[in-house]
Design brief:
Layout (H helix, E strand, L loop, with lengths): L1 H9 L30 H20 L4 H8 L2 H14 L3 H12 L19 H7 L3 E17 L6 E17 L4 H19 L2 H10 L1 H13 L10 H6 L7 H14 L4 H17 L1 H10 L14 H4 L10 H6 L6 E2 L4 H4 L1 E3 L9 H4 L1 E2 L1 H21 L9 E5 L4 H7 L12 E5 L5 H16 L3 E5 L4 E6 L4 H19 L1
Parallel strand pairs: 4-6
Antiparallel strand pairs: 1-2, 3-5, 6-7, 7-9, 8-9
Helix pairs in contact: 1-2, 2-12, 3-5, 4-5, 4-7, 5-12, 7-8, 8-9, 12-13, 18-20, 18-21
């Protein structure tokens, strides 16, 4: 992950002069936001790899990740996967990865939406695969005594019989791995022939053939995609709100439905993780432990920030701690809204403490500065009618624990690290809000930052540990630019 990240940053243009109108960092991440319109093959490869690596969180945060890897690599299932690979011509490792993500290797897994078994197959798709799903309708008879008349000395009743139908499974081959896995593999091979690529077949397994037919057609019509490079990564990384709007909106619709456009990347990472488990189970378990949240006692980590930040990072217990840190871990936020693209509206328990609450780590302030830059330049390219860019409203930076506990905000404890900040988006015009969310997702998919909704109109944002040095450099550049302007 780190090597890929460094390589990606090295592709960014260095030494670009600043704009007289607003801050343009010389240190940049290539291919983000509006810059998606010029993805070279090399840059696409790097972005794809970063996207695949970032799926580690989505997989390993689940408590079933380790047990699932053990089941998938068990001798009994391995024999079934080998049979499926021989019958379909598909790589055994890829079939395993799909089974791993779909059910964690549980042959009895059942989704509330209907799919069942180790490969999570719907009843309709099972019929297409040639799997038998036989059910019988049975009836449950109940009797109820109903009051007919209350007149007179003795009420009159009658007995009413109710007949309620229910379905009983007689045979469901979706629950038999020896039948379901080879059938799913053959189905995947058919999808590959139909859509012309293994990546599209994986996408179709999750999204459905109809969905993929539509997405392929939109990708073929999209600007900037060579006709011989109509792939899932090209589809995903070649759209933004400013251009290829139709493709962008279709991707957003599918993301809101079930995150299908990212399924291919998750499968690629699952394949890599299963290979790691075979090679070194202890290293796999150790990696899984690193994706557990120290703040959640049971279940999955709720978001990336809950994994990236540790209890040892929450060092600012009181305002005295913040005062004592001057010139060490915290720096003062730059207050120049029109130039840097954000404005401060932080609050504190006492007016005398407001100065200290306007600080954060250099990496957090660099992330904020970079986010504002990318949001503004995408907004300029979109040029929404009647909209002017509004500086992002920052409502929280560092906060001491004693103040946080009084606020009762769900995510506020992370502010005790100085590594996060909050943006209130309630007053942003629709076009700018769309740009902000797109840039957040764009940076997030490649592992640069994490964000979560905190309340009704508030976003809680922080960069990844591996990105802190880069964003701290952006902040230092901003400090230098401000100093030059003040001379």
């Amino acid at each position: 992950m780190k090597l890929a990240l460094l390589f990606f940053l090295s592709l960014a243009p260095l030494g670009q002069a600043g704009s007289p109108d607003y801050f343009i960092p010389a240190h940049r991440v290539s291919g983000i936001g509006v810059a998606r319109d010029d993805l070279s093959d090399d840059l696409l490869e790097v972005r794809t790899d970063l996207m695949i690596q970032s799926q580690t969180f989505a997989i390993l945060r689940d408590p079933m990740a380790v047990a699932g890897a053990k089941r998938i690599t068990s001798p009994k299932l391995q024999e079934v996967f080998r049979t499926a690979a021989l019958r379909s011509g598909w790589p055994k490792s890829l079939i395993e990865a799909i089974a791993y993500l779909e059910s964690w290797g549980d042959s009895k897994a059942e989704s509330p939406a209907g799919p069942r078994g180790i490969m999570q197959i719907s009843a309709a798709t099972a019929h297409t695969m040639g799997l038998k799903v036989v059910v019988n309708t049975r009836y449950r008879v109940t009797r109820e005594r109903v009051l007919v008349s209350a007149k007179g000395k003795k009420p009159k009743y009658k007995t009413v019989t109710h007949k309620t139908s229910y379905v009983v499974s007689v045979r469901d081959e979706r629950l038999i791995p020896e039948r379901a896995i080879p059938a799913a593999a053959v189905y995947l091979a058919a999808l590959e022939r139909s859509f012309g690529g293994r990546d599209w077949a994986v996408f179709a397994y999750h999204c459905g053939p109809g969905c993929v037919s539509e997405m392929q057609e939109l990708t073929r019509r999209a600007r900037g995609i060579p006709k011989d490079q109509v792939t899932v990564p090209r589809m995903f990384f070649s759209a933004n709100p400013a251009w290829n709007r139709e493709l962008y909106e279709a991707i957003q619709q599918q993301m809101q439905r079930d995150f299908s456009p990212t399924y291919y990347f998750r499968i690629m990472r699952a394949e890599q993780l299963l290979a790691l488990y075979r090679r070194d189970p202890d290293e796999f378990v150790s990696l899984a432990q690193r994706y557990r949240s120290e703040f959640v006692t049971a279940g999955r980590a709720p978001h990336r920030l809950s994994v990236w930040l540790k209890r040892d990072d929450l060092v600012f217990r009181s305002c005295d701690d913040i005062r004592a840190d001057v010139g060490k871990r915290l720096v003062k936020a730059l207050d120049w809204p029109q130039y840097f693209g954000y404005r401060l509206n932080v609050s504190s328990d006492l007016p005398s403490n407001l100065e200290y609450f306007s600080e954060a780590s250099p990496s957090a302030l660099g992330t904020l500065t970079y986010l504002a830059f990318e949001t503004r330049r995408l907004h300029e390219e979109m040029n929404p009618r009647g909209e002017r860019f509004q500086p992002l409203l920052v409502t929280s930076l560092v906060e001491p624990e004693d103040y946080v506990r009084q606020s009762g905000q769900r995510e506020a404890l992370y502010h005790c690290s100085g590594q996060v900040f909050d943006i209130d988006y309630s007053s942003l015009p629709p076009g700018e809000l769309e740009c902000l969310r797109f840039v957040l997702s764009d940076l997030g998919w490649d592992g640069y930052l994490g964000f979560v909704e905190d309340g009704r109109d508030n976003l809680h944002i922080g960069c990844s540990p591996t990105s802190r040095d880069f964003f701290a450099t952006v902040f230092q550049e901003a400090v230098g630019r401000k100093a030059e302007a003040e001379e």
